[in-house]
Amino acid sequence: MCYRQLGIRSSDTSNARGAAVMRRLVYLPGVFDPGISQRRYMRIVERDFDINAFLQRPLFAHLATVSEEGPCESPVWFLWEDHALWLIADEHSSYAKRLEKDSRAAVGIVDFDLERGFLQHVGMRGTARVFPMDKQRLQRLLARYLGPESEWDDWFKQNVIDRQSRMIQIMPSTVVARDQSYFRGKLRD
After folding, report:
1. CA 156, 157, 162 angle in degrees (round to 5)?
2. pTM of the prediction?
3. Could you tell me if 30 and 14 lie in one domain?
4. What CA–CA distance (Å, rounded) separates 20 from 22?
5. Which is more confident, 91 or 19?
6. Domain around 122
7. What is the pLDDT of residue 14?
């Protein structure tokens, strides 16, 4: 990812506008695109709360992809690790097949509690890559939602978990994190 892809001209990095934009970029250490020697950056458009803490919650993500028929949406479990969202898929998953054809993706994640008036949202746009299954990463992802492996339902393990064969990495290029709680400052525990 280069500055131009983020809407930054090289001359901008030396003036006030460029300084403001650079403050919103987050360097992703150790994350590189194959064949590109430049660093990866994630542009934070808006941040009302700690994004990393939010992404540690076991919430559903809504993955948006494109197909020949138009946009598609899939609810998915995720793991936020190495500055990327990781998803799981089996060999028949339609969203994995769509991402192999067109790597553009958007993800929305919402934490909502009507009674407390709590509403936080993280939205991301970026690119996806499909990898073979990483068993250790799969275990970490599933433990977030199902608890320790010893507590997993045998039927669910055999019929769902054991069929997962691929991991999808979403590398965000743009992130928005909004707190839209309507009792902000008055949230009850």
Report:
1. 125
2. 0.74
3. yes
4. 6
5. 91
6. 48-179
7. 45
The pair of three-digit structure tokens given for residue 143, joined into one six-digit string: 């433990």
- DSSP annotation of 93 reads -
Q: In what helix (H) or strand (E) does residue 30 lie, and over which residues does it extend?
A: none
Q: Quick check: 83 and 42 in contact, CB under 8 A? A: yes
Residue 185 within any structural domain of the chain: no
188 in a domain, yes or no?
Answer: no
Report CA torsion sign: 108, 113, 114, 118.
Answer: negative
Residue environment code for 144-180, b if the CB has 16+ CB neighbours within 10 A, otherwise e = eebeeeeebeeeeeeeebeebebbbbbbbbebbbeee
Over residues 138-153, the pLDDT tens digits come to 999 999 999 999 999 9
Based on the number of CB atoms within 10 Å of its own CB, is 77 exposed (0-12), middle (13-18) or buried (19 or more)? middle
Q: How far does CA 126 lie from the centroid of its chain? A: 9
Helix, coil or strand: residue 4: helix
Lookup result for tokens 């090289």: 10
What is the spatial distance between Cα 158 and Cα 109, in angstroms, rounded to a whole number? 28
User: Does residue 121 share a domain with residue 107?
Assistant: yes
Q: What is the pLDDT of residues 50-95, one digit of tens each?
A: 899 999 999 999 999 999 999 999 999 999 998 899 999 998 999 9
